[in-house]
Design a protein that fits this description.
13 strands
Length: 303
């Protein structure tokens, strides 16, 4: 299944959490790694099918309204009468975010049964999900329904203690075609010696999991991508007007998916993903509403 081609004319499927990030300055911004990815993909014109669950509350209404205003398909977002819309408390120290993830949020209870009819109706190119969504049994069961659709899988590793287990991660990576993680997560998961360099660790994890691509984000040092025997590294320039780095990795993921579906050469894809991630660092949170941001990048990338 990992070697099958991508049907590039179809929409991507994005599965997982949507929530509100609460910042120390009192601001509240839409977030959640899968939602961030879906938001950017919509900005780039890919019309993703986003699957999640929100509470039957004011924040849930705000999410549905924001998605509708942005032009996103809301049919995959379930309403939960018994659990609240997701929230995360964000702390910033030395320009790096840390996250207090609240337990038993609506997205933990995504129901699998309603997805089956939707998945039968919609043809998609690939499916993206992160590792956090596996923390609660109902959402894990719903994720299995998505996997049963047989789409190529892009897995985004987010090791947020205490919300992950090795067996959940093994299950995800063994089914993935592409995977993304940061340098710290790579060092935790690589089968190679802890003293090995990043390239060696990435190569051994790629081989151990039989992945086609492995993406390693490295913060201010850029990114490393291993794909089809090719190794590409890039370093971003100085980010002028840095606000925070929340969602930078999700911005990178969205452009990676865009490049996969557009068939971009790997060096161009990696540089474009780094550039867009840097742009997201210049705004509060991960989901800006400047449509020109996306249009300007698309024009630049298609010239």
């Amino acid at each position: 299944m990992k070697q099958e081609g991508i049907e590039r004319g179809l929409r991507p499927l994005v599965f997982g959490e949507v929530l509100y990030d609460s910042f120390p300055d009192g601001s509240v911004v839409l977030g959640g790694a899968p939602f961030n990815v879906a938001w950017h993909l919509q900005g780039f014109g890919l019309n993703p099918l986003f699957i999640s669950r929100v509470g039957d509350d004011e924040l849930g209404e705000r999410i549905i309204a924001a998605m509708s205003e942005w032009g996103m398909d809301t049919r995959g977002v379930q309403r939960d009468p018994g659990h609240p819309t997701g929230r995360v408390v964000v702390s910033i120290r030395n320009n790096e975010p840390s996250f207090e993830i609240v337990p038993e949020q609506a997205y933990d209870f995504i129901a699998g049964e309603p997805l089956q009819a939707l998945l039968r109706q919609e043809r998609c190119s690939l499916a993206y999900h992160g590792s956090l969504i596996a923390r609660h049994p109902p959402a894990r069961a719903a994720l299995d329904k998505v996997r049963e659709a047989g789409l190529p899988l892009f897995v985004d590793v987010n090791l947020r203690d205490p919300w992950w287990r090795q067996e959940w991660l093994d299950d995800a990576l063994d089914q993935a075609r592409w995977a993304k993680l940061n340098e710290h997560e790579l060092r935790m998961l690589s089968p190679s010696d802890a003293a090995a360099d990043v390239k060696t660790q990435a190569d051994e994890l790629l081989r151990a999991r039989d992945l086609e691509w492995l993406v390693v984000t490295r913060g201010g040092e850029g990114a490393l991508v291993l794909a089809d025997g090719e190794v590409v590294e890039t370093t971003p320039g100085r980010v002028e007007g840095l606000v925070d780095t929340v969602g930078a990795g999700d911005a990178f993921s969205s452009v990676t998916i865009l490049g996969l579906l557009r068939g971009w050469p790997l060096p161009a894809l990696v540089q474009r993903a780094v550039d867009f991630a840097a742009a997201v660092c210049r705004m509060r949170g991960a989901t800006g509403r400047d449509r020109d941001l996306y249009g300007n990048y698309m024009r630049k990338w298609t010239e």
